[in-house]
Amino acid sequence: MARTRPSNPNEKRRRAKSKLHRVQPSPSKRREHTPTELLAEATTFLHTGDPESALPLALRAFVLSESNSSAKSDSQAVTHTLPSLSAINLLAEINIELGDPDAARHYFLQAVALDPDLKIPEAEGGGAEKFLWLAQLCEEGGEESVRWFERGAEVLRRDIASAEEMGLTGEVVEDKKRKLVGALCGIVEVYMTDLSYVPFSLSDAYSSLFHLTHIPHLSHSPQCQKARAKALFLRPRLDPLAETHCLTRINKALALLPKSPAPHQTHASVLISQRLLPAARTALRTCLSLWRALPPSHPDVPDFPARISLVRLLLEVGMEKDALSVVDGVVSGDEECVEGWYLGGWGLWILGDKKRRNEARVDDDEEIIDDENDDGEKLEHKKGEEEGESGRNDGEGHDWTGRWQDSLQWLRTCLQLYDQLDYEDERLRHHALELVQAIETEFAANGVEVEGNEEEGGGGGEWESGDEAGEGKGDGDQVMG
């Protein structure tokens, strides 16, 4: 289900210029390409980030395949459905890249109709891919998504068993196992949302209690501190039936690929819903350890959407430093990732708030951060232990105002991109504005000058580690702030 790389505008301009100087063959020398040749050329365009050029070639291949099929007898027509099936699958993938999910869903459903018994090999247009896509594209969601995931998982299990019987090993088998793990994790996500409880936004939880912690003379009261701690643990619990389905699939995924980060991340999400926060942190540490040192092109490195989800999970369990490290890599790879800038600004706000509370409760030169989990368990981190879950140094000289200055930059960048890109997530925008207003109000009350205030919309420079502030920019693997 991996998506192809987005098209590069500079590369597209280069190709357009090249076409202007290309010598066209004379009409007498032209010949009609076969469907197979057209599909190969369209696939090349798609994989190099040019779905616009791929679309007419794939359509032509489909038309030729249909014409060839109609000209044959019924017994011969079955053979000629195979190029049609490959063309339909390719047309669906092209429309995904072009941002037309309705057209993609239409083509994938056609592909399913041509392979009702799941007997056509993947090389000839069969396989699990169409089912895995339909699980994500279906309009109803819920049980229908689960059914499509299960059909895809059935094909993958059969292919894996067949390969193992033949003694095959290597990346082809591992890739099928990754897809099967993805299908199992996809089912878990459906049970945690559509089939368990109403989808819940963590930002809503924090935002709903945010104003309580900024009432003068009350922000450090036990009542508000408890509300602040509870804000991160308002995710509804799984109902028993959904919990059983989730655990069954997660255990299968972990048994299949125990060294893949994906099932550990999904397992952490389930554990959070079960209120098993220490176990969730352990699962998230394992997830991070399995891909952080890998090269970016490695198949086990999560894609951008998975990393955004990971950042949210890390923030939910109080692993802010790791969350910021991950989100730095996201915005380094996609500078227009609105949600990445928002989560980075939010994470820095949380770290600055913790430091602000520490300074108000210094006792015998020992800083304490007290939080409570949903079951009332005290979570205490002494000075030196609150170094972040990754074990990286926070920079002792970086006080709460510095954290919030950085938070302002990133939140302003988020809001600027939100308007420029016509982004649609009003709750995200509302929470980002709320955070900005709270920081500016606190700075005004404490006589702190807002850095970069002359820039409209904010700049959003890169994160800096506390030890390197003012000396250099952080990279994707560095803790920010």
Task: Walk me through this protein's architecture.
The protein is mainly alpha-helical and 481 residues long. Helices cover 61% and strands 2% of the residues. The protein is built from 18 helices and two strands. It has helices at residues 9-20, 35-47, 51-70, 74-97, 101-114, 129-137, 143-165, 171-192, 202-210, 222-231, 240-256, 261-273, 277-291, 304-316, 320-333, 338-360, 400-420, 426-446; strands at 368-372, 378-382. The chain has a two-stranded antiparallel ribbon. The longest helix is centred in the N-terminal third of the chain and has 24 residues, at 74-97. It is globular, with a radius of gyration of 26 Å. Residues 1-28, 73-80, 198-233, 366-397 and 454-481 have low confidence and may be disordered.
Short description:
The protein has 481 residues and is mostly helical. The protein has 18 helices and two strands.
Total of DSSP H or I helical runs spanning 4+ residues: 18
The overall average pLDDT, rounded, is: 77
| Rg (CA only) | 26 Å
How far apart lie the N and C ends?
35 Å
Poorly predicted residue ranges: 1-28, 73-80, 198-233, 366-397, 454-481
Helix content: 55-70%
H/E element sequence: HHHHHHHHHHHHHHHHEEHH
Secondary structure category: mainly alpha
